[in-house]
Amino acid sequence: MKRLTAITRPFTAAAGAPVRPAKAALNYLAVCVAVASSLMGFTLSPTLSVMGEVGLCGEVRPVAQAERRVAECVRLGFTDILLPRQNLKRLRPIDGVRMTGVDTLMQALAVVG
Fold this sequence. Notes:
It is built from 6 helices and 5 strands. The strands form 2 sheets. It has a 3-stranded parallel sheet. A two-stranded antiparallel ribbon has the order 2-3. By secondary structure, the protein is of the alpha/beta class. Helix 3 crosses helix 6.
C-alpha cells in the first residue's frame, strides 16, 4: 500500500485531488500509458482520456459506470477516449468523439504511440 501511494503521489499533485489506492485501480491504464509515453519519448494528445484497470499479465479490465465516465470526458472536452473493449461494446457512438477499445496494455500503447 505504501508503494502504491508513493507511485500515485505525483498524480495527486497534477490532478489537484488525492488519488487513493482503493480508487486508483480505475486509473492504472492511464498511469501505465503516461509512464510509457515518458519513457518511450512520445507525446500524448491533450484531447485524450484513458480509463481502465490493468491486470498483472497486461490485460485491460472494464470499468464500472463507463457511460457516466465517457459523458464526463465529453463534457470536459476530450475527443479521444481509450477504454476497455468490453466497455466499448456497451456504449453508443457519440458524434465528434473517437472511442477506441483495447484488450491489452500493448494494444493501448500501440494506439497512443
